[in-house]
């Protein structure tokens, strides 16, 4: 870019950069002065032990599991209840300080980076499970409660919460990023499973998206605020409670592994199983690079070919029928016999291996970091996009094993990249853009479950168009007129 | 109220009413002048044959199937494509004319009444079914396409669209009111089944809520605009296309009728069937008053006691298992043997009788009109609320047979009322308010599927609280700053 400019343009550009730099520096100075001013107010709200200015703590709260660089907040607060969250938010609002909600830091799109500094609200101290209604299949949890903690709590009730993104994320964080994962093909994503939210807005106002304590299975009462906050990535408010739909633990579960001679055969089987209406609980694809990495990382010995991990839930009898149909289909596509995982321990080992794919991929190149793509396309386009993407990976000489929730048309290339090699980083960036555009050209989306965060803001605009972006910006302005809530995420307005 | 005022207050109140009246009259005069001015622009956009000022046409477009009185628009336009909708909206916007979208007029909450006059956009001429993707289980339809028309079109594809509110409503209208009905317990409501919308905003801007032509099974790309417009009742924009999720026609279906000695026994059976995890497709409750009315209206002869209509979908084998479990439960609650409806014709007759409940109720008192309540509560609260409500009906001496989608906790009292008896109307009003508050006290909602429209605006405020209402009002202001889109619905801002 720079080299294409005339000398006078270069000068102009340099001057513009200097003005920007001065503005940012002034902004930073003003913000840090504001932080100093509010500390005593923070202390009187949540006690001095629940406020941290330490560098290590701030750095820990400035990054998630993605390659996005750490952007530490100016201060981290650890409120203990919604009243404290509200009072702290009000102070931030009065002093124009950015507010960044923090759950477990297991996001994958840089969602917690304090790109404009400000106050990180770490919600781990609010970890109560409230109002379990086993007879109505619902429960309400505070933001410090993780997926695994909830399922451990539910162990003896015959109920479970199935949405499973792999990481032991906080449930309110999962609501904020509209997470899903391996079970979504059967049980839906957070969008279908959040019934109500308590949210603190940037000015400290506390709302309940469906009304306080309400939990009907369906409602047509006014605008669907619940699903506006689900997937809002902390940019509209701080989620301080979420009411979730629960499910009965199935009478029987069985998992199976099936190897295929080609990607096409594995993905064709997936599409056909879905089309036949088998209510499959999980159907996960791993390409030969991925299965090889998992074999090594988790001490397994599956054939190194494109593979499906499947899971069936139901009564003993319905399971038999589901399995028979699925096996018939995989065999007609030259799949291997199913390798079974019937008891809980073997099943858990299998799915742990699948969920450890992220670490298995990283282990392929020690010292490197992983970045996951996240496109999602209509089912029928899956074979073509996966085949084209594997070709692209080969041609680009990039390491990117593929794992995916193919039952939803969603798959990830786990790009393993040397963070100190700018050329490789650039190649990965170009590859992920090509992949996203390939998905967009096939009626798909650039993000099926990870969210937009920092890295996909430009792609979001390509995906929904500038007019829908304007509408989104209008909603943001309406709920957060000072742009204090997690600024710089989802929408692009010069906050880089 | 009036009688409680002091004489000077009465005078003040009278003067206020006169000022209001004068303002409304001035507003009406100005609006009618504006309508006169825009007619030639309308004609040049959609041709003179697609504009109607006739009284009969206007009256037909000023009311739905509810008791809300007819509020005819000033003019009805019949655009033929999204470009015409957009151009017409722009003209309305430039002249501050209210815009009221109209599908089939089968709503139940007065949603189409032109309470501030303006232009009714009747969308029946846009009736194309577009982009059927059988392999991906999705289709896109224009707003003139009804539920039955789509299912007729799909007849030979092995696919169907299950959401079924009874009436042959337009699918875009169903999206606008967040409709559901008898199949929601298995297949979800419009919220779960709309994948994308094309929407014309009040200023004529056309957006696609998930991006043009996109149809991935899941997405985390930005704010969930799709579910903001689903259920917005025409107050945020005009839905001109909806992309819907389709389902495979089940291998086998069977319906059954079961009579019970008491309401409690019927509703307990429902709750237990759901809790056991039977994937029941429909489970409808009719109280003894309702079944009696249906027997008479549809020439049936079911025992006049609380009754469940059930339907099971699945493979032949899974059906057997579902039915056995359900029968075991109903029999343990003293239910009768199942009366079967196995072939398509008998099943259709059964469900037609259920869907004709509305007319059957009206036939109980010829010359009267029906008004349907629509509360929805958590499953476990159903027995109590239905028993209390029946007691209330008896004590209030009101006719209100009960029919409901009890699998979702949603039921309707079909209030049959003499529209010329102000005392009875008042009694019905008081009863419906008591019922709604009973539902709110049980963590429920005042509307499970009919929407807020005109009659439930105050109850919505009680349900979600004034702060959530403020948020909703902010969203409305952001999308429709001139308050032109279907003014006076959902939110109350003096437009009565």
TrEMBL record, chains A, B:
Reactions it catalyzes: (R)-lactate + 2 Fe(III)-[cytochrome c] = 2 Fe(II)-[cytochrome c] + pyruvate + 2 H(+)
Biological processes annotated in GO: lactate catabolic process
Cofactor field: FAD
One GO CC annotation: mitochondrion
Keyword Repeat carried by entry: no
Subcellular location: Mitochondrion
Domain FAD-binding PCMH-type: 68-249
Transit peptide found in the keyword field: yes
Spans through the membrane: none
Superkingdom to which the source organism belongs: Eukaryota
Keywords: Acetylation, FAD, Flavoprotein, Mitochondrion, Oxidoreductase, Transit peptide
GO molecular-function terms, A-Z: D-lactate dehydrogenase (cytochrome) activity; D-lactate dehydrogenase (NAD+) activity; FAD binding
Major enzyme class: oxidoreductase
PROSITE patterns associated with the record: FAD_PCMH (PS51387)
The enzyme's E.C. designation: 1.1.2.4
Function recorded in the entry: Involved in D-lactate, but not L-lactate catabolic process.
Annotated family: Belongs to the FAD-binding oxidoreductase/transferase type 4 family.
Complexes and interactors: Interacts with CSRP3.
Protein name stated in the entry: Probable D-lactate dehydrogenase, mitochondrial
């Amino acid at each position: 870019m720079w080299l294409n400019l005339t000398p006078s343009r270069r000068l102009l550009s340099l001057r513009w950069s200097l003005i920007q730099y001065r503005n940012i520096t002034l902004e930073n100075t003003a913000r840090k002065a504001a932080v100093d001013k509010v500390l005593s107010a923070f202390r009187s709200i949540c006690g001095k032990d629940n406020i941290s200015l330490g560098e290590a703590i701030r750095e820990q709260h400035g990054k998630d599991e993605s390659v996005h660089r750490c952007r530490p907040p100016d201060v981290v607060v650890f409120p203990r209840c919604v009243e404290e969250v509200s009072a702290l938010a009000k102070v931030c609002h009065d002093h124009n300080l950015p507010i960044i909600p923090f759950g477990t830091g297991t996001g994958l799109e840089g969602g917690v980076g304090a790109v404009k500094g400000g106050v990180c609200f770490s919600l781990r101290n609010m970890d109560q499970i409230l109002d379990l209604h086993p007879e109505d299949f619902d429960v309400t949890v505070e933001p410090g409660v993780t997926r695994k903690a909830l399922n451990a709590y539910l162990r003896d009730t015959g109920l479970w919460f199935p949405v499973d993104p792999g990481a032991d994320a906080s449930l309110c964080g999962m609501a904020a990023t509209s997470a899903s994962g391996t079970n979504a093909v059967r049980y839906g994503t957070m969008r279908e499973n959040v019934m109500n939210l308590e949210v603190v807005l940037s000015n400290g106002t506390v709302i309940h998206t469906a009304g306080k304590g309400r939990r009907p299975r369906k409602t047509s009462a006014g605008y669907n605020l619940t699903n506006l906050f689900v997937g809002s990535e902390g940019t509209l408010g701080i989620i301080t409670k979420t009411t979730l739909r629960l499910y009965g633990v199935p009478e029987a579960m069985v998992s199976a592994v099936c190897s295929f001679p080609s990607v096409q055969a594995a993905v064709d089987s997936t599409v056909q199983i879905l089309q036949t209406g088998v209510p499959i609980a999980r159907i996960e694809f791993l390409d030969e690079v991925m299965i090889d990495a998992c074999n090594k990382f988790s001490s397994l010995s599956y054939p190194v070919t494109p593979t499906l991990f499947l899971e069936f839930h139901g009564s003993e009898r319905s399971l038999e029928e589901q399995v028979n149909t699925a096996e018939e289909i995989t065999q007609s596509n030259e799949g291997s016999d199913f390798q079974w995982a019937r008891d809980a321990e073997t099943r858990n080992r299998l799915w742990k291996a699948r969920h450890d794919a992220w670490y298995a991929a990283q282990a392929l190149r020690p010292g490197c970091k992983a970045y996951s793509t996240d496109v999602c396309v209509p089912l029928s386009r899956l074979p073509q996009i996966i085949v084209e993407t594997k070709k692209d990976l080969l041609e680009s000489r990039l390491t990117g094993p593929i794992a995916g929730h193919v039952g939803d048309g969603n798959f990830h290339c786990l790009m393993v990249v040397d963070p100190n090699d700018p050329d490789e980083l650039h190649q990965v960036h170009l590859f992920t853009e090509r992949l996203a555009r390939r998905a967009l050209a096939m009626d798909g989306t650039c993000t099926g479950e990870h969210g937009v965060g920092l890295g996909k803001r430009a792609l979001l605009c390509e995906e929904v168009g500038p007019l829908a972006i304007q509408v989104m910006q209008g909603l943001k302005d309406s709920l957060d007129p000072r742009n204090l809530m997690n600024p710089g995420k989802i929408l692009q307005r010069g906050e880089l």
